[in-house]
């Protein structure tokens, strides 16, 4: 049954129209009175409830910069990645095409330059239209800007559920507040400032906020280069970004564009010839899809993620984790980093070459730092962040501590057993106690029972023993021919376990601990309760590397010896500025004395022997002091051959390379395996990590300096009892007897096991 309308109030009748007009006028009168009559002119008894309500609304609107993309830059200023919650690049009004300014005003607010924040004519027209059953908006550009600013502020405070949208959850009170704020805004800002703010904040697409991002997304151009038909189309999109999307709904977009062009013609913004040409232009797009986030970095996805974690873990960027993420993803920051793109490209090539065809998911990584500054120069690994056919996909960074990495796909990753790359620190304590590296010790001793009289002045007890008669193994070397007396320096050069223990047995284990702590070595699995876990050198297995340690930690530790004994904490961020240009907390070089220069020079001397005549001389391509430039290094392999290393340095660059098992508990043995078509009975540090190291250093190190290392003092070189009859003219390099190269790498995984090399 059809309900009859009362003809007296039917708006289709003349009387109905008159009554409707009077009703609309009354409503508008209340609004206009509230908007335009100063509160002081209205007596308390005479003012209506509506006006009283209106005058209690806030008169000021805090206009903060809208969310903008954060940019991460390499040391040379090239872009590593863009990070954002909303893809927006703020541009000034003079960097926008005049067509977009005219188009948006024509379609959204033709009296923009005439009103004071609200358009009374538009409000009356909208009310009349609504009374007649046709919904029509009346928000000015200023009101829309106010609404966007309010909503943007809510989103930035993680209050997206409080966002108010026209026609959805916005009531009369919300509209009144919006109107008053619009008037306040017009008193504070010029029309040009308001239009600029609006065009920078308005939503065009989930991948484009603001006119610059929209221009890039839909037309692969900038806002200043928009043509008339392009500008008219984007101005039309604002009304309904989904319905008028020119990619998914080109017909709808054209209809709206042509409407905008008609309005521009009617309002004298364009001439008829321009209109005709624009109308005849088909809707075509040239989409540039934004690729935001570290996973899309073409050069350094994992370094990028490391940089983000440095900020996410920094309370200076917010009291909570959410606040810090929000600050980075919405703050329009410019983050300048230390990464050298040329060195990074070489590093990436090397790790990819080590384990390219890799169905078994063996990992390879390389990281280098600059001695004296701690700047991270490169950071690469042989995986891809985003899944790709035939590639090893992983989100965690092989080079850093667990807290500095992303993802959970490789449970527990936070470094790897460093094997014999830990041996130089025992050697350093030997020198630190004033002992000569050419002292001959007994390398035949393999048994260190529970009651062995270790010297340990630390409060931490000595843990572990090697004794096959008492529930464990005797200490072992990788090859049988090295159970013999030899000098301490030859023991290090050939990576002999029994010599490392013979050395440790004659020094204070606590002294080794102090050096390890001073050069920044720590476990790679920190947590909130223990953010910097020590590697206890009073646990005997750690003398030959049984505690997981990150490659970045090892590179920074070795850089200490290149820097005359001064350790510098690794840094990745040199400056951070926000969108206003204000500087925010970054990193700066932070160094401390770790060992004496004399000890550092002695270690450098010994580790040159590693590459000249010792275990590192087997690395191909060959790199040594004799044939290339002064360089020092140490190989490393754990018991199972599942973690292999080379760490070393020149005067200007320190690098740690690693190859092995990055999966789960890292328990796979690197034995009887085929990598890149080559079979390995047991992977040693010199075999795969070694070429990564030498190829990289041969190409990159000369850029950073390859000066000779200072010679150690004679007391650290001369064997006990040596008394030259004449002033010594012996040069470093001729005092140590040459030895047959050995593939010995390295150490014991639990303090009670055997050695592998």
TrEMBL record:
Catalytic activity: Preferential cleavage: (Ac)2-L-Lys-D-Ala-|-D-Ala. Also transpeptidation of peptidyl-alanyl moieties that are N-acyl substituents of D-alanine; [GlcNAc-(1->4)-Mur2Ac(oyl-L-Ala-gamma-D-Glu-L-Lys-D-Ala-D-Ala)](n)-di-trans,octa-cis-undecaprenyl diphosphate + beta-D-GlcNAc-(1->4)-Mur2Ac(oyl-L-Ala-gamma-D-Glu-L-Lys-D-Ala-D-Ala)-di-trans,octa-cis-undecaprenyl diphosphate = [GlcNAc-(1->4)-Mur2Ac(oyl-L-Ala-gamma-D-Glu-L-Lys-D-Ala-D-Ala)](n+1)-di-trans,octa-cis-undecaprenyl diphosphate + di-trans,octa-cis-undecaprenyl diphosphate + H(+)
Keywords associated with the record: Carboxypeptidase, Glycosyltransferase, Hydrolase, Membrane, Multifunctional enzyme, Protease, Transferase, Transmembrane, Transmembrane helix
Pfam families noted in UniProt: Transgly, Transpeptidase
Enzyme nomenclature, EC number: 2.4.-.-
Listed InterPro entries: Beta-lactam/transpept-like (IPR012338), Glyco_trans_51 (IPR001264), Glycosyltr_51/Transpeptidase (IPR050396), Lysozyme-like_dom_sf (IPR023346), PBP_transglycosylase (IPR036950), PCN-bd_Tpept (IPR001460)
Region (Disordered): 709-757
Penicillin-binding protein transpeptidase domain mapped to chain residues: 366-650
Domain Glycosyl transferase family: 77-264
Bias kind Gly residues: ranges: 746-757
GO molecular function, one term: glycosyltransferase activity
Biased segments, Low complexity type: 719-745
Domain of life: Bacteria
Residue stretches spanning the membrane: 21-42
Name of protein: Transglycosylase domain-containing protein
